[in-house]
Amino acid sequence: MECVLGVVGRDFAVVAADTSAVQSILVHKTDEDKVMVLDSHKLMGASGEPGDRVQFTEFIQKNLHLYQFRNTIPLSTAAAANFTRGELATALRKNPYMVNIILGGYDKDVGASLYYIDYIATLHKIDKGAFGYGSYFCLSLMDKLYHPDMTVEEAVDLVDKCIKEIRLRLVVAPQNFVIKIVDKDGAREYARRELVGHNAPVEAATTVAA
Amino acid sequence: MVGKNCFAIASDRRLGVQLQTIATDFQRVFKIHDKLYIGLSGLATDAQTLWVFRILDSFWYQRLVFRHKLYQLREERDMKPETFASLVSALLYEKRFGPYFCQPVIAGLGDNDEPFICTMDCIGAKELAKDFVVSGTASESLYGACESMYKPNMEPEELFETISQALQASVDRDCLSGWGGYVLIV
């Protein structure tokens, strides 16, 4: 029931994911960060097999850092996306990684971009996208409400509407989400949306999904 | 589709995962050189791998464009469409027991601007034709539409109309294809 979603706005990209770590019927933790900051201007939201997710995203992050050390300049978002696809494609017919990725980044010359990379290494540049059962609810919401060049407030509002819909309509829905943003000032956490766990507001226990 | 000293190659624009549409601007017709194009239907990841790179057990990287550029350097000319078709066929048959799930459509202009088209299945069985070739989930519909709309020796403008109408009519009857089309005339 994991969800990752992403939206491109005016010179920024937003990547959001749920923060539940689930095994069978047990919720191990409700604050698992699934949107990795790859480098100063890249975000990689990943969902799928938990071991593969962590191992693969860390592998990509370290390889990006290695490139930067060796060549003194960072990889562009497009190059990072194609590198990621290449690694997934190579492993596909040997030992596949079961990880779906939304990769968002900002480059000075290109602006903000978002890439959809699924577990069988299909790569596509997108303006809006989502993975998981949540995507069945989010994609049509985004189709209706998205327009090019949204402001940060509009984009986060769209993400919030998607989160609200997932909480309401998905059986065994994840309650907590993390929203991260990448723009010319870098990649950083923008907000958390929490209904359960240590950091949830006290009223949340008695409030219907917001 | 073949015309008079020209060819047209067209594809739909949908990228989907079974019932879910992911994108409506996915391109699956790729340029090899000015007079040679390849369209790859089937699994998107394999279309991208064939287009981008392929790794053998001995870790040699090969790309369709890379292979063609190497050919250009060695032979000092562009590859003929027939030669390229044989290359793709060989590349696919190498994976006979673990194939790429792609059905290519190759279209090009050979010597004297003679149009050449062919298609093959996912393990490289070439099928040459003089009029039109099709592939994809809507291939049966496409055969029917092309057969009825095709005329030999069409000029580029008429060829464009014909291939567009044939594509649209066929994909409209297939839920996994559609969301517009790309048409290339050379």
TrEMBL record, chain A:
The keyword Cytoplasm applies. Keywords: Cytoplasm, Nucleus, Proteasome. One of its GO terms (biological process) is proteasomal protein catabolic process. One of its GO terms (cellular component) is nucleus. It holds the Pfam family Proteasome. CDD domains: proteasome_beta_type_2. Its main location: cytoplasm. It is found in: Cytoplasm; Nucleus. Belongs to the peptidase T1B family. Non-catalytic component of the proteasome, a multicatalytic proteinase complex which is characterized by its ability to cleave peptides with Arg, Phe, Tyr, Leu, and Glu adjacent to the leaving group at neutral or slightly basic pH. The proteasome has an ATP-dependent proteolytic activity. Component of the proteasome, a multicatalytic proteinase complex which is characterized by its ability to cleave peptides with Arg, Phe, Tyr, Leu, and Glu adjacent to the leaving group at neutral or slightly basic pH. The proteasome has an ATP-dependent proteolytic activity. Component of the proteasome complex. This is Proteasome subunit beta. It comes from Miscanthus lutarioriparius.
UniProtKB/TrEMBL annotation, chain B:
One of its GO terms (cellular component) is nucleus. One of its GO terms (biological process) is proteasome-mediated ubiquitin-dependent protein catabolic process. InterPro entries: Ntn_hydrolases_N, Proteasome_beta_3, Proteasome_sua/b, Proteasome_suB-type. It comes from the Eukaryota. Pfam families: Proteasome. Keywords: Cytoplasm, Nucleus, Proteasome. It is found in: Nucleus. PROSITE patterns: PROTEASOME_BETA_2. The 26S proteasome consists of a 20S proteasome core and two 19S regulatory subunits. The 20S proteasome core is composed of 28 subunits that are arranged in four stacked rings, resulting in a barrel-shaped structure. The two end rings are each formed by seven alpha subunits, and the two central rings are each formed by seven beta subunits. The catalytic chamber with the active sites is on the inside of the barrel. Non-catalytic component of the proteasome, a multicatalytic proteinase complex which is characterized by its ability to cleave peptides with Arg, Phe, Tyr, Leu, and Glu adjacent to the leaving group at neutral or slightly basic pH. The proteasome has an ATP-dependent proteolytic activity. This is Proteasome subunit beta. The lineage of its organism: Eukaryota, Viridiplantae, Streptophyta, Embryophyta, Tracheophyta.
